[in-house]
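Do me a favour: review this protein, sequence plus structure tokens, and tell me how the chain folds. Record follows.
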Amino acid sequence: MGFRSENKSVFGVVRKSKSRSLVTIVVLLTAGYVAASLIIGSGVRAVSAVSLREQPGDRIEALLAYADSPKHSLRERNRAIWALGQLGDSRALPLLEKSYTGGPCDHDRALCQYELKKAIRLCRGGTNLSAFLWRRGSY
């Protein structure tokens, strides 16, 4: 009987340890997801603010003008395209589709085809798992 009760207590400790580990993993993954989502939202707000300084009014229209403006660097324009994709507004589709060639990325000469492809997918209603945490009435 002594062996059995010791055996049960060892298995009980192992079971509790596994449960705690699982809870810890779930909490860490959830915290990471929330943090990443909030960072994405912060980035969208920052890019939007820059574009709105140049063209006050509607956020999407300001980002579209910014992304289409040759006076901005390709890097800045790519950030605007990324923000448009994160916002997922279908009004962005004409510009995004016009700029998308489907070819390989050449960041020194053209807009990022990878970002354009992602933005098009999101503006056509693709799933954006982080958006519900940061996309509120202000967008």
About this structure: Residues 2-134 form one domain. The radius of gyration is 23 Å.
